[in-house]
Amino acid sequence: MGGVVLGQPENGGLRWVGVAGSGFKAKELKDLHSALIPLRTDVNPFGNGTKVPKLDSWVKPVLVCYVKYYDITKDGKLIWPIYQWITNELADSGDLSPSARAKYLETYFPEERR
Fold first, then answer.
1. Fewer beta carbons within 10 Å, N or C terminal of the chain?
2. How many beta carbons lie within 10 A of that of residue 20, not counting itself?
């Protein structure tokens, strides 16, 4: 897997904002691949005419990927996005719930318990 294509919800669809191709740990790659396989689709989740990198496959846009990045370009693309984690559980505020974050940190960062 080369990276995670990133889209920002906008006007009832998705706007392409970049690709996070670094920041993955070995266990995350295996788990992420397993989570994405059932979500594969032939349908491009971005609007017609959206220029995105050539991909081997698409997935349904039902997961939320958290990234850190250096900056945002004038047209809204992320500069150097780095994968942090992915989830399908959000709090009402649109952020990761405390229980989901705790589970994620315990799974992937046991040495950094918070």
1. C
2. 23
